[in-house]
């Protein structure tokens, strides 16, 4: 999506990813043999060096990269490698947010031992959210400890990865705000959205967030912007938050890149998160983050098995729904739980949106909500 946006602005892009036909490589043809895409892993320092030698500005669309290699890239890197490094360790990220006064719920370090997990449960209570400090995504790296006797099970599930524990947050809603920050430090927030997760994976996003609390939207945007101001570097950041019954907001986590909760901006906002990421890292004027449609929803297309049949059935229906835009990522294999694409639906009213969305959801074997 970043590559597609770059091509509209005639920004030449070189991609580092494993394989010759990775999703982004399908979008942009290599510029020249000198600027061929790089075949390799974003955690391989040699490959990062190879990419850096071909570009003026380097950016990431995943935080699980080799941040030390980025520090030595020798070209402009956004967001700054130190920010990526800080954010990719979720415990360090929480400590950073806590010392900057950002609202977060209690968390403590945990050793990868049964005794340490039990001590954390005694300290923060049950259920307890155990999280892997690094390499987490789509909830892979989280374990909900409901009973103290599950400590062994948690260790087995999370392996030998460094852990920490978070107090369970009994939120009523999950919300998110995309924030864009320019090289001069200007920050702009996109509208607040509601995210609906199932099995730790984001399934649906609704924009804008509807609430009886007239202050909520502005409060959430300001929490998100204040948090992003504490990090160095330019680009788009996704700020995931928990909303409590009494209106309190806690930050769950921050992503230093365009975010799943901002896919809707492609069809629904004046400037998509991808275009604004490019504008931000290239020192171009930031674009408007305003909504340009009254109501919008985004449905992730999540693999149900190794077969694409269910996805085909869903996208066939999507093609008949007014206001629905299908995005398929061109991933080589489908797997249960893998994000294969998404569908954004825009509508002139919330009622019309619900009706359009209902048609889509009825094409799924089981409802995500
Ligand atoms: P992502 O794909 O968003 O990067 P992740 O693997 O980093 O996901 P988290 O965002 O930490 O995982 O958690 C996934 C989901 O688990 C959250 O969206 C929320 O639904 C739930 N969750 C996380 N932390 C807590 C908590 N402390 N209390 C209750 N629920 C939580
Ligand atoms: Mg995460
Ligand atoms: Mg998350």
Your description of this structure?
This protein is α+β, with helices and mostly antiparallel strands. The protein is 30% helix and 25% strand. The chain has 13 helices and 17 strands. It has helices at residues 2-8, 23-27, 45-52, 67-71, 81-88, 90-99, 114-124, 151-158, 216-229, 265-268, 273-281, 309-318, 350-361, and strands spanning 16-17, 38-39, 57-59, 76-78, 107-110, 128-132, 142-145, 163-167, 173-181, 187-189, 193-198, 201-207, 235-243, 249-255, 295-302, 324-328, 339-347. Strands 9, 10, 11, 12, 13, 14, 15, 16 and 17 form a nine-stranded antiparallel sheet that branches. A hairpin with a 2-residue loop joins strand 11 and strand 12. It is globular. Residues 136-137, 253 line the site of one magnesium ion.
